[in-house]
Design the sequence.
């Protein structure tokens, strides 16, 4: 009798385990969705000045590299000025800026970010992790799978 009760309980436990969410897919700490356009405004500026200083970032193209890294091509526009392009490399949870000739990478976020080093320096710029922060407005700029996280991310200060 105990055997017969154990079988349905084991089956139910197995089915419940099948419904558990799988492992979370790691996501880079930079915009990496092809076609995504982000706009940054300083709301403390007067309206006309907000538009003149508005920063728009567009992810033009994302390519998988042979070594497992992502190469991300972005366009940046400030106000009405012509856009300029930059290429980023994402690998090992780190983010780097790729030189124009494609030969060298300057690290922006260190490998292992955000659990790795809490401070780092690149050239004349010193970075430090201030902690976790949340998006205070509607998180409609975030991809659908990130909205459930409430827009919580890691705040990094650059000086």
Sequence:
């Amino acid at each position: 009798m105990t055997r017969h009760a154990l079988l349905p309980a084991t089956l139910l436990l197995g089915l419940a385990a099948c419904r558990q969410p799988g492992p979370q897919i790691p996501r880079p700490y930079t915009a990496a969705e092809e076609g995504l356009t982000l706009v940054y405004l300083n709301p403390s500026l007067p309206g006309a000045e907000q538009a003149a200083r508005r920063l728009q970032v567009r992810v033009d193209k994302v390519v998988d590299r042979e070594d497992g890294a992502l190469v991300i091509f972005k366009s940046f526009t400030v106000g009405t000025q012509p856009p300029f392009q930059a290429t980023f490399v994402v690998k090992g949870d780190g983010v780097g800026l790729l030189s124009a000739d494609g030969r060298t990478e300057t690290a922006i976020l260190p490998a292992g970010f955000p659990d790795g080093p809490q401070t780092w320096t690149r050239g004349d710029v010193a970075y430090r992790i201030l902690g976790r922060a949340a998006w205070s407005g509607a998180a409609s700029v975030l991809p659908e799978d990130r909205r459930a996280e409430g827009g919580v991310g890691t705040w990094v200060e650059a000086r």
In short: DSSP finds three helices and nine strands in the chain. Residues 12 and 18 are 10 Å apart (CA to CA). The beta strands are 37-40, 55-64, 70-78, 84-91, 94-98, 105-109, 119-122, 125-134, 152-158.
